[in-house]
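During the reporting period the student researcher (J.K.) took over the structure-prediction task from the postdoctoral fellow and processed the backlog of single-chain submissions. One of the processed entries is reproduced below for the supervisory committee.
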Amino acid sequence: MCTGACSKFIAIPLYVMAAVSIICNIMLFFPGFDTTYAAEDREGEQRLTQEVKYMAGLIGGGILVLIPAIHIHLTSANGCCANRCGMFLSIGFAALGVVGAVYSLSVAALGLANGPTCLWSNEFNTSPEWGTPFNSSGGSYLTDKEQWSWCLIPENVVEFNVGLFSTLLVAACVELALCLIQMVNGLFGCICGTCGKEVRAENAKGELNYNTP
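J.K. obtained the following structure tokens:
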């Protein structure tokens, strides 16, 4: 497969993963699909999970991956970037995507490990209070669903956070793999070219044969 064609197959999934990351990050600001908690947190009350505010899905897995995806896609087209210089630049852009994906992956993993911020109580803390009850659990709460009932408000916030942070984590892993592949693909494209000239030559030859009586 030509390096230019490979770039196209890399760019399209990157668009999808970047969109997924952005959507997940935005949704995490509204636990229980309620805007009340975001408004209260903005007023100084601790209502949102701390890792959500790092905006790793929006900035890291979103913008920092979307920009490289656009350039990588351009290297697959018969335009200004479908050349050795464009492929060389794609290595740098892919490296930027790696940074964004690693940031998103790290924050998502941290969000899963620490758990959500919620109004909670249990047998050791009978007076409900806002906080992060699973912060010191080392992520063990993920396998003990009985502990999930500690969080009273927002409703089902543990499932909400686990689902979205897990999706963010998977998306970041896919982005990381694709950007690393593009760095290798860009290196080969820089050395060997993108096959764009060969494809255009074959198309022109085909048109000539078609038009020749």
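The committee noted the following: The first strand starts at residue 118 and ends at 120.
J.K. will present the remaining backlog at the next meeting.
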